Amino acid sequence: MINFNGNIAQEENILTQNRAFLYGDGVFETVKIINNKILFLEDHYFRLMASMRVVRMEIPMNFTMEYFEEQILNLVQQKNIESLSRARITLFRNDGGLYLPKTNEVSFLIHAAPLDNTLYALNTAEYEVDLYKDFYITKQLLSSIKTTNKMINVTGSIFAHENGLANCILLNDTKNVVEALQGNLFMVSGKKLITPPISEGCLNGIMRKQILALAKKVEGIEVLEEIISPFDLQKADELFLTNVITGIQPISKYRKKEFTSNLAHLLVQKLNESISEN
């Protein structure tokens, strides 16, 4: 079951002329729903609107935040998974044209699936990463939004699987650290919490924003958005990844270096507290 342009329907083949399928001409958001509420709704909505503007899609007049919310919750309610689920809304330019589209009007597709844990929990199992150097992220505005062209993430995930890694760290075209395959990267070095700035090509992550805000309230921690080199990773005390579905994922090992997860534990606790308060 899916939500296609506001109508609940059984899944069907809509790909033959679909521009997201043919050209990667689409943008998307993945959200987490707890107890019939979309977490960080406003942040997701405004990032989606910004993404549509960047790629010159026409924003429908009815596509308000309330409409965005209604369409997602309608689907998860019909599937009886509104208590805990994830949903993805994909917007794509309507059919027609080759590289040059015939229209900038859009359609959307929403699909949803259940999740297991209501609160964010820290996974402390072994989580080894390494660099992925076959392809690089470019330092440009397109890299900071969620488009349907994720070939670097796909090929990087295959590389990680083939090499027994839990994840890989992506680099930009100046060989600096950007992010991981499935989330933003944070590094703890002494009393500093550092994450690459958006200008380095990393995704403008929703959970990244939450963690930056929460960490600034932790006494004794200096929060910085600075360039991180691969060499810096081996000098770090702690590394972790963030995304909306998982929350915080500690990295246990990078090459020969093993890491603690003390700040990650504290931030997960504060994250859950902030969600409960809201």
Automatic annotation (TrEMBL):
<dbReference type="GO" id="GO:0004084">
    <property type="term" value="F:branched-chain-amino-acid transaminase activity"/>
</dbReference>
<dbReference type="InterPro" id="IPR036038">
    <property type="entry name" value="Aminotransferase-like"/>
</dbReference>
<dbReference type="InterPro" id="IPR001544">
    <property type="entry name" value="Aminotrans_IV"/>
</dbReference>
<dbReference type="InterPro" id="IPR043131">
    <property type="entry name" value="BCAT-like_N"/>
</dbReference>
<protein>
    <recommendedName>
        <fullName>branched-chain-amino-acid transaminase</fullName>
        <ecNumber>2.6.1.42</ecNumber>
    </recommendedName>
</protein>
<comment type="pathway">
    <text>Amino-acid biosynthesis; L-leucine biosynthesis; L-leucine from 3-methyl-2-oxobutanoate: step 4/4.</text>
</comment>
<comment type="pathway">
    <text>Amino-acid biosynthesis; L-isoleucine biosynthesis; L-isoleucine from 2-oxobutanoate: step 4/4.</text>
</comment>
<dbReference type="Pfam" id="PF01063">
    <property type="entry name" value="Aminotran_4"/>
</dbReference>
<keyword id="KW-0808">Transferase</keyword>
<dbReference type="GO" id="GO:0046394">
    <property type="term" value="P:carboxylic acid biosynthetic process"/>
</dbReference>
<keyword id="KW-0032">Aminotransferase</keyword>
<dbReference type="InterPro" id="IPR043132">
    <property type="entry name" value="BCAT-like_C"/>
</dbReference>
<dbReference type="InterPro" id="IPR050571">
    <property type="entry name" value="Class-IV_PLP-Dep_Aminotrnsfr"/>
</dbReference>
<comment type="similarity">
    <text>Belongs to the class-IV pyridoxal-phosphate-dependent aminotransferase family.</text>
</comment>
